[in-house]
Amino acid sequence: MKTFRSFILLGLVALVFANCKKDSDNDFEGIRVSINGSEWVAPTTAGAALGDNISLTGADAATFKTLMLVLPANVAAGTYTIEAFGDVQVSYTGGSTSLYTPKSGKVVVTEHDTAGKRIKGTFEFEGEDAFNGGTASFKDGEFNVAYQ
Question: What is the pTM of this model?
Answer without folding.
Answer: 0.80
